[in-house]
Structures are given as structure tokens and as C-alpha cells.
Amino acid sequence: MDSGNDSSAPQSDQGQSLSRAQRALVYGTVGVAMEVVFTGVVQAFHRDRADLKLQGHSYLWMLPLYGALTAYAYEPVRDSLRRRPAPVRAAAYAAGTIALEYASGRLLKRTVGVIPWDYTGHGQFVRGGGATRLDYAPLWAVAGMAAERLSDRLRRRPTPVPELG
Predict the structure, then answer these.
(1) What single string gives the DSSP state of each residue in 99-155?
(2) Which residues contact 135 (CB under 8 A, 6 or more apart)?
(3) Cα–Cα distance between 73 and 94 in angstroms, integer?
(4) Which long-range contacts (CB under 8 A, 24 or more apart) does 4-7 make?
(5) How many angstroms separate the CA atoms of 92 and 89, rounded?
(6) CB 138 within 8 A of CB 94
(7) How far is it, in rounded angstroms, from Cα 90 to Cα 108?
(8) Which of 78, 3, 69, 87 has its CA nearest to residue 30?
(9) Residue 62: CA count within 13 A, CB half-sphere
(10) 86-112 and 137-154 helices, crossing angle to 10°
(11) Alpha-carbon distance 89 to 153, whole Å?
(12) What is the pLDDT of residue 14?
């Protein structure tokens, strides 16, 4: 059984990497914080009702979702794509996040009766009964690329430097 310690992972002289559960808590916390910032900034630039209070929000569901999905789904994808070109990794992260957002949204709809982040009414690119927005693909790509360094640091893995030429 996987203890989540990733003992086969290369270690630096900075100490042991965090356990998978510890990394999930970090990922969840960072994800919720980024969501609060994002929603606050988006409200400030809303075309119909700009709100300069910068009041962001998230949902309690997001801590375990961001945490578990990043630790158990993103990390293996990161590892398999590690040496691929950045555009390939970014596209994979965007597609994977949209798929996971759709699946988790639909699962919550079936189990608790609501998709907390329901995008219904937010444009033509909303799919899955409000579970996901295809126009967020570039944002998810950037988030996936940014998460690479965090993931590598939490697991004490070197971030590969792309070859030039």
C-alpha cells in the first residue's frame, strides 16, 4: 500500500519530501487561496457590476478537491510529462483540469444536489450542466504550469531545465 512518502523519489540534501497527505493539504490551501484571489479580481472587472471591494470567495468543497486531485492525479501526470515541451504539458494540464472539474462537479451534483461553482449563465462555453467552462482552458494551463514548481519543491525534485536548440 502506498504510504504517500514517495521513498523512490530523488531526495535533495534539504531533507525528506512531504508525505502525499501533507502535499494534498498544501495544494488544497494554495488552490483555495488562488480561487479567492481570482474571484475577487474578476468581480473588480465585471462589466455589469464592478465591485472594487475585491471580495473573493471559495467553497469548503474545494480544499479536499484541490488537495486530493492535485496530489493523486496531477502529480503522476506531471511525472509522465516532465520532459515534454511546455505547450504539450500546458495543453495536458488544461484538458485534465477541465475533465476533473466536470467529473467532480457532476459527482457533487449527484451526491449533494448542487455544483458549488455552477457556471450556468456564464457564457457559451459552459458545459456539463454548469460543471465546467471550456473558456477557462488557458487559465488552467497556466495554473498547471505554475504548479510544476510547487510540486517539484514539495517533493524535493529538481525542476528540469528545457534544452535550447
Answers:
(1) HHHHHHHHHHHHHHS--TT--TTS-TTEETTTTEEGGGHHHHHHHHHHHHHHHHHHT
(2) 123, 125
(3) 13
(4) 4/71, 6/155
(5) 5
(6) yes
(7) 27
(8) 69
(9) 13
(10) 100
(11) 18
(12) 56
State the cell numbers at 105.
462537479
Number of residues assigned to the chain: 165
- Measured distance CA(38)–CA(139) in Å, rounded: 10
Taking the domains of the chain in order of start, what are their residue ranges? 60-154
The pLDDT of residue 2 is 46
Cα gap 27→49, rounded to integer Å: 32
What was the pLDDT predicted at 163? 58
| The pLDDT of residue 49 | 82
Segment 83-128, tens digit of pLDDT: 999 999 999 999 999 999 999 999 999 999 999 999 999 889 999 9
Tell me the per-residue pLDDT of 4-53, one tens digit each, with 9 for 90 and over.
555 444 444 456 778 999 999 999 999 999 999 999 998 888 777 888 88
Residue 79 has pLDDT above 90, yes or no: yes
Longest distance between any two alpha carbons in the chain, whole Å = 53
